[in-house]
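Discussion board: Methods & Data

I've been asked by a reviewer to show the raw model output for two of the constructs in my manuscript, not just the figures. I'm not sure how much to include, so I'm pasting the format here to get opinions. Each protein appears as its amino acid sequence followed by a line of discrete structure tokens. Is this the kind of thing reviewers expect to see in a supplement, or should I convert it first? Here is construct A:
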Amino acid sequence: MPEKLIKAKEEYNKNPIKFSAEECDSYRQMIEIFDGKRKAPKSEKLSQMSATEKRDGAKLGRDLVAFCDKADESNYLNIVRNSHDREMRTCKVSSQTFKQSFQPAPQFSGEMPVWIAKSAPDGECGIVQLSRFESEKFNKSTYLYWKYIARKAVTNPNGTTSFGIACKGFDENEYVYDWREKEHQLGCDYIKFTVF
């Protein structure tokens, strides 16, 4: 967060922002709606909002009105903090399609086979796919159950991509996609569907 605040501070000092009278009026009306002092133009939308969304909306409205009343760096940074706080309570969900080829791992050619990704270093970062499928039997079943373990390694950590992204920042953690049912406590107030 400090990095985000420093950047916002620099941007504000370079090009101070000021809201129009119409914008400030709409922010004041927004607070009155959240406080129940004014009827919402689309009351069905407001009734569908969760208590958390209403609380966050009211807080953002108050920060915006405070900036309208006194357009200074401190009030601007409060808006940035508010936005960052909500972002930190938002889980992003995305899906990507990709193709991988696998081959049996020679050392695991017994009863419980393992298949490993066929991969060679790729791109400016020399990324090697280390993903694999591992099998197991469950409750004396004759069927094999599979889990997919996703992992990649960066072989050129000192490189950069054509977009200027440092290779050393790429995720090399291992992620297990198991066939067993699992519940995950995420602690999200919001879920955002995104391509990234």
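Construct B, same format:
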Amino acid sequence: MASDFHEVRFPLDVGLGSRGGPVRRTDVVTLASGREHRNSRWASSRRRYDAGLGVRTVDALHAVIAFFEERRGRLHGFRFRDRVDWRSGPPSAEPTPLDQRIGTGDGTATAFQLVKTYGASFAPYARTIAKPVGGSVRVALDGVEQDVGSAFTCDPATGLVTFTTPPAAGAVVTAGYSFDVPVRFDTDELDIDLSAFEAGAIPQIPLIEIVP
């Protein structure tokens, strides 16, 4: 996800009107006894969106077409703001350096990947966060916030936090951040009927997450 990914965000005003969310793929086999056997085919969830609901004007539609053409359809990925899930904590709360545990120091390692954990009691799911918003990442060691630049840096293209000095063995590494979802268009064709659009019909603009 390097040369085939453009570090640019889908038009925010259009994206805020989108719909969608996480998708999982589970095989369910029903036995003769009526019992079920369930198996998850994907280790990670994958998000799908339809951005067409956010297109309200012809000008917005024109902006989406320009964005689509520059991405060459499905060829290049890009950033997308999920209005329901775009911060390390709740969407309404500003990120704090204590929001998410991203690792434990061993006295040697300097690099830690940003993650967001969902759930707590039964089977927590750790999601890799590969597209943090530049300048939004805050990091703490054992609850003490660290200075960005002098103590650590974070690559906004990968979500990798790198410390200047390795955290001490046993030190709890936590972080807070805003982030985008890496996605691509899930079609090479935008089928737009302008007369239908002006009559209130919404064009379909399918997007799908690029799993890191």
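Answer (T.O., handling editor elsewhere):
This is acceptable in a supplement if you add a one-line summary per construct. For B, something like: The first strand starts at residue 5 and ends at 9.
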